Amino acid sequence: MDAAETSVGMGELHVADNKKDTVLTTFVGSCIALCLYDPQSKVGGMAHIMLPENSRNNDDDGSSSGEEGAAKYADEALENTLRMMVKKGALQGRLVAKIAGGAKIFSHEGSGGDNDMFSIGSRNAESIKKLLTQKGIRIAGEDVGLNHGRWVRFNLNSGQVVVSMRNSGEKIL
Question: Keyword set for this entry (predicted)?
Answer without folding.
Answer: Chemotaxis, Hydrolase, Receptor
